[in-house]
Each structure stands twice: as C-alpha cells, then as structure tokens.
Specification:
With 371 residues, the protein is of the alpha/beta class. The chain has one domain: TIM Barrel. Strands 3-4-7-8-9-10-12-13 form an eight-stranded parallel β-barrel, surrounded by five helices. Helix 6 runs parallel beside helix 7, helix 7 runs parallel beside helix 8 and helix 10 packs across helix 12. It is globular. It starts with a helix and ends in a 17-residue tail after the last helix.
Length: 371
C-alpha cells in the first residue's frame, strides 16, 4: 500500500473510529496480515533492501537501520513480525507491567489532526508480563527487540523496583535491550522516580538483576536505558542524568510525551494526558542537544530520539543533535505502513548525495540542525 493510498483512502476511514479503536483495528489488521500465507512477503514488497550505509552499531548491538518503533504502538507484542516486515530495524514493546491492568478510563486517546498530534492518557494498559512472555517465548525476530518496563498503578513508589525487576526477570531472554520508563505523565507519581536518588536506586536494582540473568544465560548483560520526560528544567535534567549514571544506565531515550500544551495550536486543556507527534519535535531536538552537551564529550552514552519524527529530514536532524537511533509512533499513525520504507529510501539517498559511508557519521556532527 502506498502512502498516498493510505492517506487518501484508509486514514479517513480510520478517523471515523475513535482513536483508540482505530489503533486496535490497525494493530489487529497487521497481526492478521502477518499470519496469512505470503503476508510477510506482501508487507515487505516495497521495503528497500538493507543498505549497509544505514546500519548502526551501538549499545553493543547491530541495528540494520536507525529507525525503530517506539513503545506504546505494540504494547503487548501482538504484531512484531509485521512491523519488522515494514522495514523497522527495531521494535520496542510495552510498557509491560507485572500484572494485567486496564489503564485509565476511556476515552483516553484523541487525535489532533491539524497538528498531526495525539493526546493520550492511557495509563499503562497491559495484558501483563505472563501474556507477553507467552507471545514471545521461543521466537526469533529479524531485528532488535526492546522491552519497556513499567510498574502497576497500585504499586507504591517504594516498591516500584519490585515491579520493574519482575518484568525484566520474565522477559530477559526475549529482550535485546530494556528500558526503564519513569516518565509517563499518566501514572500518578511516576515522574517522582526521576529524582537522582530514587532513579539511581531503581536503575541499580534493575542492573543487579540484569547482571545475574546474564550470568545464568552465559550472555552479556542487556543495555539498560532510561526514558525521560521532555518537560524537565535544567536542574531536573541534571538530576535524571546523574541518577541514571549513578545506577549504571547504558543510555537514554528522549523523550516521552509532553504535558506542555503550548506546543499545540490550541491547548485542548479539557483533555488529560501527554502530547505526541509533530508538535514535540522542536522540544525533543532541544532536549537531545542539551543532554548531549551535559553528558560532555567524554561521555558517549547513546541516545535514542523519539518525538515528532515522520520524515528522513527529521531523522537526520535528530541524529545531528546527538541521537544514535530514532523511534516513531505518531508519525507512523498519520503516515501509514509505507512510512518506514519511505524514510529508509530517503536516508539512503541522503547518504549517497553527501558521500557518507555510514549514517552514524552524522551523530552529534558539528552542523546546524535542519529547520
């Protein structure tokens, strides 16, 4: 399916459903398609062959390209084969919680088409770690798998580490990297875990289990990343960065959704939750630049950039700002299943036109960020 076909014919039909029902329909359609004879081949038909120039080596892992699926799109690992077939180099599932939970009451997802944005107040709906484990057990995927760890809503902050480590314990063999999510605005009190002491202790607990599991499986420990909020002031950002470093984190994901409604053309103050999509782009670019500067030249902890990315130019600008990899979610919702193939073709053309042998050469490059 071409992008123009999706935008002319499919997306208008999806908008007749409320945003969350449309998301479920799209995810179920991908799941059905991947199970049909020849379904994977059909989805991969328009995806360009892997381009060695787009391969990224970071976090001790090989990524066939820098483009990944952000957490939240496939929370319960229901359509991973399809997402890889569409061209993504990595898929991050979750947020996964230890026990099943419904999340916040509906409605809790709203499209803002004029801004190509989404507001969501999901609150970690999850089928729970046991169900996700059953879907992943014994499977192998053609790309990198990330697992986004979370806590159940009723779990106190004092006991949060128990939830994060429970999910890691069950899903460790299926993951290539893991993410500590302490930045969702939709779980009460969660962002309090971004303080230096609390975060350092949490990351430390996750890393202790990570190293133990690595010994059990005779495998290197998984990279552990921390996903941070885009709404941090300078002091709070320093707290997060230092807390993550204290605990032994491997890198950062920048960023989660924003509670700053000034990024929208209209504030939609009547709606709860965080904003994702195009309006987040400038904010996350600036936070990526600021984080890279604060880490300093001697600290090359990788950053995965997410928020407002829907074109190859956006990928390039985020990598120039300091991200080694990028993820998309809302851009995929608005652009459709042809989005990753288009971005990959344009990234290859960029490398060819600039004489770049590896896309990683532009990470943190001393060049102006594209407008």
């Amino acid at each position: 399916m071409t992008e123009s076909t999706y935008q002319r014919q499919i997306f208008p039909l999806l908008t007749r459903l409320d945003a969350e029902r449309a998301h479920r329909f799209a995810l179920q359609s991908l799941h059905i398609a991947e199970r049909l004879p020849g379904g994977i081949a059909a989805m991969a038909r328009d995806v360009p062959a892997p381009d060695p120039k787009l391969a990224v080596e970071t976090l001790g892992l090989h990524f066939s390209n820098p483009l990944g699926v952000a957490a939240g799109l496939d929370k319960d690992a229901e359509a991973m084969d399809a997402l890889f077939a569409l061209g993504f180099g990595s898929v991050e599932i979750g947020t996964v919680t230890p026990r099943p939970q419904p999340g916040n009451p509906r409605p809790r997802v709203w499209r803002i088409p004029g801004d190509e944005a989404v507001i969501n107040a999901m609150g970690f709906p999850s089928s729970g770690v046991t169900a996700v484990k059953k879907r992943l057990f014994g499977r192998r995927f053609p790309g990198v798998v990330g697992v986004n760890l979370g806590k159940n809503k009723e779990t106190s902050l004092e006991n949060a580490a128990r939830d994060y480590t429970r999910v890691l314990d069950d899903l460790w063999p299926m993951a290539n990297y893991v993410v500590i999510n302490v930045s969702s605005p939709n779980t009460p009190g969660l962002r309090e875990l971004q303080g230096r002491n609390a975060l350092g202790q949490l990351v430390g607990e996750v890393q202790r289990l990570n190293r133990w599991k690595a010994d059990v499986f005779s495998h290197p420990p998984h990279p552990v990343l921390v996903k941070i909020a885009p709404d941090l002031d300078d002091w709070a950002l320093d707290e997060v960065l230092q807390g993550a470093i204290d605990g032994g984190a491997s890198g950062f994901i920048i960023s989660n959704t924003t509670i700053d409604r000034s990024v929208l053309s209209e504030p939609h103050a009547e709606l709860p939750g965080g904003v994702s999509g195009r309006p987040l782009r400038s904010k996350t670019n600036e936070l990526t630049l600021k984080t890279r500067a604060r880490l300093g030249q001697d600290n090359q902890m990788p950053i995965i950039g997410v928020g407002g990315i829907s074109t190859a130019d956006h990928v390039i600008e985020r990598m120039i700002a300091g991200a080694s990899l990028v993820q998309i979610y809302t851009g995929f919702v608005y652009g459709g299943p042809g989005t990753p193939a288009r971005i990959l073709r344009d990234l290859s053309a960029f490398c060819d036109s600039e004489g770049i042998s590896s896309i990683s050469e532009i990470v943190g490059a001393a060049a102006p960020v594209r407008a």
